[in-house]
Amino acid sequence: MIFDVEINSAAHYPAAEVPGLIEIAEQAGFGAFWKGESNSTDPFVMLSAVASRTKKIKLGTAIYHIYGRSPVTLGIQSATLQDLSGGRLLLGLGVANKAIAGWHGGVFDRPLKRAREYIEVTRKVARGERVEYEGEIYQTGKRFQLSWKPSFPDVPIYLAGLGPQMTKLVGKIADGIVINMATPAKVKEIVGRVHEGAREAGRDPSKIEIIAKSRVSLNPDKNLARAKLRQVLTFYNIADHYSDMLRGMGFDAEVSAIHEAFQKGGFKAAMGALTDEYMDKLPVVPASDVSEIKEKMKAFEAVGVTRMVIPYVPVTEPVADARRFFEAWGNS
Predict the structure, then answer these.
(1) Residue 97 pLDDT > 90
(2) What is the distance between the alpha carbons of residues 2 and 21, in angstroms, rounded to a whole number?
């Protein structure tokens, strides 16, 4: 299992500081740097800057949502970053939600069809093929083709998924799946569906990458680490989609208690209702030593995870805190 890193979780890192941090992450042995989207700094802009300062660390988008740009645009961007970085791009995509679709003037509907068509167009464009796509949702018009021959035409594409249909679709069309906020038991269930989809499509299930996330904080005072992670987890417990998923993983009583506290007293009260006992059952690690993090990650490897993304949640000033974490990881 390869350990990757993400640093845009629950903190804002000044854009100019990120490439230097990822230089340290590369030296520490992390396999990839993943950058999310939503309303934070742009992944491809950031990854391009990181590519210019690093040599071997992979560059991932986790997750670029499909409403922010056309598949032709994304294909052009992907081919460009592949050439710029020497073929280090890991393209993670997701269908987002109603809110994010609305930000970009889109309508959240038919997510399975959208994902399939979007990936088909993006792949063709990034490979430098002539594209005249006439799908139910996406059309590219006539005679589009890159003006140059890409040096690294095969871009690995990963799809974010949790539900039964999307996870099976991953097995049928994607190079891997990105799983957020799932326990090892839930990941095992998802892996089964991904492999089922692969077999249905005549693909080799063992060739599909399984990428999961576990947020961590590192501080000598574990209570401080818990406090920062509690803030992140409270958000997930009151967010519609993720709260449903957490209930489905057997945490109905805990999620209900947090919702009730939120309705009565707001976010601070909801944070108070998220107990240490509940936190310790979730895919987060409040740690005082790197060894604690690596030990908890073994459960994910045991259920088939091939890349483990560690979104680092800083306790103190983000840049200095992340630097200390990377250095501690490299020395562990």
Answers:
(1) no
(2) 19
- Write down the CATH superfamily of domain 2-220+283-330: Luciferase-like domain (3.20.20.30)
- Residue range(s) occupied by CATH 3.20.20.30 in the chain: 2-220+283-330
Integer Cα distance of 284 and 216 in angstroms = 5
Choose between 95 and 241: higher pLDDT.
95
Question: What pLDDT, on the 0 to 100 scale, is given for residue 255?
Answer: 97
**Burial label, 6 (beta-carbon count in 10 A; 0-12, 13-18, 19+):** buried
- Token readout for 206 is 């063992």
Q: Report, as an integer, the average pLDDT of 162-181.
A: 96
Model confidence pLDDT, tens digit, residues 192-235:
999 999 999 999 999 999 999 999 999 999 999 999 999 999 99
Helix 43-53 to helix 71-85 angle (10° resolution) is 10
Residues 6 or more apart whose CB falls under 8 angstroms from that of 268 comprise none
More confident residue, 9 or 53: 53
Q: How many CB atoms lie within 10 A of CB 35?
A: 25
Chain segment 243-261, per-residue pLDDT in tens:
998 999 999 999 999 999 9
Which of 221, 244, 233 is CA-nearest to residue 275? 233
CA–CA distance from 68 to each of 52, 145, 193, 205 (Å)?
A: 24, 21, 28, 30
Please report where in the chains the tokens 């992140």 appear, as a residue. 232
